[in-house]
Amino acid sequence: xxxxxxxxxxxxxxxxxxxxxxxxxxxxxxxxxxxxxxxxxxxxxxxxxxxxxxxxxxxxxxxxxxxxxxxxxxxxxxxxxxxxxxxxxxxxxxxxxxxxxxxxxxxxxxxxxxxxxxxxxxxxxxxxxxxxxxxxxxxxxxxxxxxxxxxxxxxxxxxxxxxxxxxxxxxxxxxxxxxxxxxxxxxxxxxxxxxxxxxxxxxxxxxxxxxxxxxxxxxxxxxxxxxxxxxxxxxxxxxxxxxxxxxxxxxxxxxxxxxxxxxxxxxxxxxxxxxxxxxxxxxxxxxxxxxxxxxxxxxxxxxxxxxxxxxxxxxxxxxxxxxxxxxxxxxxxxxxxxxxxxxxxxxxxxxxxxxxxxxxxxxxxxxxxxxxxxxxxxxxxxxxxxxxxxxxxxxxxxxxxxxxxxxxxxxxxxxxxxxxxxxxxxxxx
Length: 429
Prior knowledge:
37% of the residues lie in helices and 21% in strands. By secondary structure, it is α/β, with parallel strands linked by helices. It has 3 domains: 2-136, Glutaredoxin (3-Layer(aba) Sandwich); 140-238, Glutaredoxin (3-Layer(aba) Sandwich); 244-373, Glutaredoxin, CATH 3.40.30. The chain has a 6-stranded mixed sheet with strand order 13-15-14-16-17-18. Helix 11 (273-288) packs across helix 13. The termini are far apart.
């Protein structure tokens, strides 16, 4: 029955529009336009569509105003897919109950609802890239590839926003459950027919093998088994991130879902030659210590973030710490500073000291990982500001009860001094 409904939807969509109804009062049309939602139809909308992207916005928000035309441009293309994707918007500044329910604390906030279940949208917002990103969510859980050409096309079309896992010589059933579980985080495929050239290209020398690809960072990691759920899942989870993660607003959002401790290296400029050599050594260390996440940040790239760990331009760098992702971090006694000597050995000595407990615990001087992610002005902040402004106005009005009305000057014996056209008393609050 469900397949018949889907077929009917697709036929109607080709004819120009398709409507979804939930009761007599709520009707939705997939006509390539962004749907405006409110309290009366929100729950019906996220139930009616298999996949819907909701923009929680505020009318006064400049970022929201700039995002709106991009969503308008993407909406008709997504509505025309074989499995349509709907874009909708909700005035979260007006419908605060729904904003609280879905933990909206910044504008604009985008959430993907798959079969009514929400997940944060961290992808791009330009129309063409947004379309490519969202196509992931209506793709098969596991794509079957039958040739070198299909493998190349699959990798090229997947883009750079998600890691890619390709099973060479693996049966679909081996990874199908995990592919379903992590559909929102990665691409999955299996292939049985491939050449030696492909083996060289993806750097594996025998099959079966599962190759993890990080397109953004041009990294590949190989898993030769055992292909049991526990070991397979651990490999998949560890490869959601590159071996050494550059810290920025986007990667912090990914790190919050990883429960491993973060070995963070702070450098002056992550783009200079010395730092690039150090980052290569960090990747080697990460490959041998997969129970930890290795990351780095440059003061030049994000000084405010580095400053929370007591690091600035006057600090001796590079410096390594172990961060819990929250409010605490560890320094390894006599091993935190990396000089220009044998840096590989120094990194090993640092990790050895950490594992042996030769550490000192400290607290960060700023927001936690989640605090950085939520550093944009949000609803709670807005409410606090509005409340404080209201209180100040009330106090000001009470304090002016004995002041003469505007336009009436108090009587004095002094002669009025000439003044400029505008003075401090003319400024608006």
